[in-house]
Write a structure and sequence with these properties.
Keywords: Acetylation, ATP-binding, Ligase, Magnesium, Metal-binding, Nucleotide-binding
Radius of gyration: 24 Å
Shape: globular
Number of helices: 21
Modified residues (N6-acetyllysine): 610
Helix content: 25-40%
Protein name: Acetyl-coenzyme A synthetase
EC number: 6.2.1.1
GO cellular component, one term: cytosol
Structural class: alpha/beta
Bound molecules: ligand 6R9
Length: 650
């Protein structure tokens, strides 16, 4: 490991910070020694209709049961909207910046209240009730946030599906959640190109119907005005519906443990899992992490560039910032449209103070050249953040020195869909920064490193990252499959939550996430199960077998490398390669596009028939000098063929 420069907390950061190093130490100690008292106090940061008397009731053993604030009653939309009306009704809640730089708008908290109430009344009018699952398949427009908040207002459980997913992927999620109400738009708009959301929805609904889930209504927001198909009686225009409902809707009193949302995420096996989050603990954790990690102060303009289709969009575009009464910027576009200066232009235009993005975007913009950054002022910036994947020190330094001009702390935030909120991250006034390290755990988070046998590693060590006790934002179950929840997260190392990530702890107690240790790859900060891509490939009539691994990619972090064996009689060709790429995109979505396809007559297997992925990974990395032990292979000659046909020759 090469030496990295430590950046000390600068006096200006410390001066304005809500948490300094001493407070961090004190609070952290209290949070792990007496979680009841600590969270009992901090749970009060949100408003409760009925205060909780029980704080924590959790076990990671046996059936695994996680309950926080279990007898409290609250409502998420009330906390994100209504409670701010008195003090900041006229403050901007959402700044929307369109794909087109001339397209923007501002929505105050009072206007947000109006939109959310009307939206909620539309849902109610069409029979959506507490506990029902509502699928949201939307572009990044304010109506996506209204839809989310409207669901929480009436106690419906939203399941957002990223707009880049295919009809098949959307259908799978509709079916798994047994969701009969879908909210979408005519088309999305990104980087000047349209995305046929309504058309995809129509196709997904047909697929879902074949799986016995009948969607009753589709609520369609008009975004582009493009032509769409229409099913009378089923499809509803949002603008027609909202015009005829009242602008008042009382928030439902929700139990802290009532389901809030489902969000599907990829794992190492099988279909994506429905990660279920509940109401009270999630909101307390999202709100508290948003405030302290970004050192958020009243009046700050805050921008997270994620999409609401991912957990980062849930927690740090919508729920965290709005529960804190922040002004949150929602961006419809992409980093390089119309030019690679877009992010920095938006920062100047809206005087953004806190900016949170992904390493993949930083690397891409770094590659485009400093001149695109330097023509902007960026003087409003105060805090920079990253999320989604490990950040290489080179990208970190560029972000810190060029974008932030050495003035702004970079908070490298490690967390997961499952954790609900940020788990390991610097707090700007409390931690010295080391480029590439997520530094130290947030309050209440107890990381532990274990070796493959489960032995606990102390001090400086490299191992598998577990969390040993619950925190309020933790997922509660896999929707509809609690057994899978236990199996996936609590059985590898019994009684501990296993993250699936590898991690090093240095001599200062700093954590360095090294990446997934399971069969999940991280492409541009998005999780992709290799098994999902494999199953998409083998669903093509020409493919008999496929094995998918990740390999290091300069911009995306990891690329998708596929080894494909064809059916007898099929002949490898460039056309077939293109067809297979297109097929995977159709099956899953563009984010799963294979970067490399290697046709291989056979795959390396053990005598018991297990594919040896370790070898495939090495070949994909063009690092076959160190293949390790190949003596257990059924046919060692397979490897020579794989090496000579490799697609990543350096
Ligand atoms: C929030 C989010 C989770 C996986 C996680 C890890 C990787 C996220 C990271 C990071 C290194 C960071 N990851 N943040 N790795 N440093 N700061 O991204 O959730 O989509 O569920 O992905 O992403 O591998 O396990 P999700």
């Amino acid at each position: 490991m090469s030496e990295v420069q430590t950046h000390r907390v600068q006096p200006a950061w410390k001066k304005r910070a809500l948490i300094d190093d001493k407070t961090y130490q004190q609070w952290y100690a209290e949070s792990v020694e007496s979680p009841e008292a600590f969270w009992g106090e901090h749970g009060k940061r949100i408003d409760w209709f009925r205060p909780y008397t029980k704080v924590k009731n959790t076990t990671f053993s046996g059936d695994v049961s996680i309950k926080w604030f279990e007898d409290g009653l609250t409502n998420v939309s009330y906390n994100c909207v209504d409670r701010h009306l008195e003090k900041r009704g006229d403050q901007v809640a959402i700044i929307w910046e369109g794909d087109n730089p001339y397209d923007d708008k501002k929505i105050t908290y009072r206007e947000l209240h109006d939109h959310v109430c009307r939206f909620a009344n539309v849902l109610k009018k069409h029979g959506v009730k507490k506990g029902d699952r509502v699928t949201i398949y939307m572009p990044m427009i304010p109506e996506a946030a209204y839809a989310m908040l409207a669901c929480t207002r009436i106690g419906a459980v939203h399941s957002i599906v990223f707009g880049g997913f295919s009809p098949d992927s959307l259908a799978g999620r509709i079916v798994d959640a047994e969701s009969t109400f879908v909210i979408t738009a005519d088309e999305g708009l990104r980087g000047g190109r349209t995305i046929p959301l309504k058309e995809n929805t129509d196709r997904a609904i047909d697929i879902a119907a074949k799986n016995f889930v009948m969607v009753k209504n589709v609520l369609v927001v008009r975004r582009t005005g493009g032509k769409v198909g229409w099913a009378n009686g089923r499809d509803l225009w949002y603008h027609d519906e909202v015009a005829s409902v009242p602008a008042e809707c009382a928030p439902e009193q929700m139990n802290a443990e009532d389901p809030l949302f489902i969000l599907y995420t990829s794992g190492s096996t099988g279909k994506p899992k429905g990660v279920l989050h509940t109401t009270g603990g999630y909101l307390v954790f999202a709100s508290m992490t948003h405030q302290y990690v970004f050192d958020y102060h009243d009046g700050d303009i805050y921008w997270c560039t994620a999409d609401v289709g991912w957990v980062t969009g849930h927690s740090y575009i919508v729920y965290g910032p709005l529960s804190n009464g922040a002004t949150t910027l929602m961006f419809e576009g992409v980093p390089n449209y119309p030019s690679p200066s877009r992010f920095w232009e938006v920062i100047d235009k809206h005087q953004v103070n806190i900016f949170y993005t992904a390493p993949t975007a930083i690397r891409a913009l770094m590659g485009a050249g400093d001149q695109h950054v330097k023509k902007s002022s960026r003087q409003s910036l105060r805090t920079l953040g990253t999320v989604g994947e490990p950040i290489n020190p080179e990208a970190w330094n560029w972000y810190f020195n060029v974008v932030g001009e050495g003035r702004c702390p970079v908070v490298d935030t490690w967390w997961q869909t499952e954790t609900g909120g940020i788990m390991i991250s610097p707090l700007p006034g409390a931690m010295d920064l080391k480029p590439g390290s997520a530094t130290r755990p947030f309050f209440g988070v107890q990381p532990q490193l274990v070796d493959n046998e489960g032995n606990v590693l102390e001090g400086a060590a490299d191992g598998n990252l577990c969390i040993v006790d619950s925190w309020p934002g933790q997922m509660r179950t896999v929707y509809g499959d609690h057994e899978r929840f236990i199996q996936t997260y609590f059985s590898t190392y019994t009684g501990k939550y296993f993250t699936g990530d590898g991690c090093r702890r240095d001599e200062d107690g700093y954590y360095w996430i090294t990446g997934r240790v399971d069969d999940v790859i991280n492409v541009s900060g998005h999780r992709m199960g290799t098994a999902e891509v494999e199953s998409a490939l083998v669903s093509h009539p020409t493919v008999s077998e496929a094995a998918v691994v990740g390999y290091p990619h300069d911009i995306k972090g990891q690329g998708i490398y596929c080894y494909v064996s064809l059916m007898a009689g099929e002949v490898p060709s460039e056309d077939l390669r293109k067809e297979l790429v297109a097929h995977v995109r159709r099956e899953i979505g563009a984010i799963a596009s294979p970067d490399k396809i290697q046709f291989s007559p056979s795959l390396p297997k053990t005598r018991s028939g297990k594919i040896m992925r370790r070898i495939l990974r090495k070949i994909a990395e063009d690092d076959f000098g160190t293949l390790g032990d190949t003596s257990t292979l059924a046919d060692p000659a397979v490897v020579d063929d794989l090496i000579s046909n490799r697609q990543n020759k350096k």
